[in-house]
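Hi V.,

You were right to ask for the full record rather than a summary. Here it is.
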Amino acid sequence: MLRWLQIGILLPLFSLGRGNFSSGSFNLTLYRQMPPLHQLDDYDLCLDRPSGSYCLAYVEILPNASSTLWHLIHEVSQDSKHRFRHDRVFRGVCLEGCKKRLIDLSESREHEEGTFLDQELIAYYAKVHRRASDADERLLYEELVNSCLNLKFGEEFSLQTRSLIEYCDTADDHLEHDGLDLIFYALLICILLLTLCSSIYDFRLSQINPQQTENFYRKAPSSRSKCKHPNLTRPLYITLSILALAVPAILTYVLELDAVYHLRPETYRYLYFRHSDTFYQMYPPFYTNLGGYLLGFLCGHLYLKKRPQGLVFRGNLKFELAMWLLVLATLGLLFSGYIFIRQDFAKPSLWLALYAGVHKNLWLLICAGFVFLMCCKVGGMAYDFCTLPLFRPLARISFQSFLWHVVILRIVAGCFRQPVYVSSFYLMCNVLSVFIITQVVAAFVAIVLELPLGEVLRCLMKPETGREEPNPVIQTSRAQSAV
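Predicted structure:
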């Protein structure tokens, strides 16, 4: 029975991987007629000249009722929940080539004045690019860049644009450290010093009274499992349960958030600062994760309670069935949220708020169930895979991987100069390459720096030879009689 249940769950998963969930029909020929979302002049070639200047510009395509192409752009851009807005594009402009193009044509288009439609984005760029030179460059090159872009859009698409320079780079531009850089360096030094001092203090404490330190670590789990006020345990759990459901629901209703967080194409495009209110309000704050704290308490309590009895439930039909039912619950929860991703509902809505509260806590319950069952050695192939010896060295360098992962991502992303065609295969290769590079760098730093320094510190803190340990505890037992 359990085998048939596994097959019944895995078959839909394979069919989902082959499915196509794109909303509406997609015409590639019409899509290619629209202006590209990003089009960049050669950055390295532009700045290779001593007087080279390169500007990235945000461009809004102006409405044109007589243009068939504009109507297509407008229609596609209306569904910003599932598609990119094609009436908002970005252009990288080499100013030397821009000036040459205008001189050759002996023509300069009139600078399009007016108010930008996307004031939120304009305010964001003004906040991010706050160098004194940015404002000067906008005033100096704004008309030039807008004339070039209008000339190009007029020739290729018979459309007019309004542009804003996001930032400019010049060949002789040198990035200077500001106050935020100095604050970051100071915090980093403080963290390193605190880590070193705490390690030295721990070694000293172990030297002074090793038996007391060992007893402390032995008694800590048992003392944590005992509550000084057992009568308050149940009211505390009930209160946490109510708050875990109520807080996400109230926030969803009051702030008019989405019931399910959905990464829109525009969210990727603007690097997660737009259309992410649901994420920032529902996931990072501690008060929206009370359900996780509650389930963590319950799982820990259950684990400590069952540990003396032995936590090996592998092969037990009841627990194996529970694991696969959790898989079904995961699929059901995913499908239940699809309607909120596909459709737009009026906000605020009481039903959206109730679903948001239940949805978030059901995910936590499913994750807690998976963790507890895996601790009980339940899970079949999944448990066998997670306990492979391969993961032991990866676990030893996991801290270094955590430290270097963002650095590797930054370096890999900085290698791209032009937009790339993103497919499933490309994305998989990119993820694997970043993972492998991160692990290689983490292993190198661990071998060259972390492990040797740890050994040096251990040798420096090593007790003196021949030093008598205080309060030795000798356990004796009566020898068995040979008779």
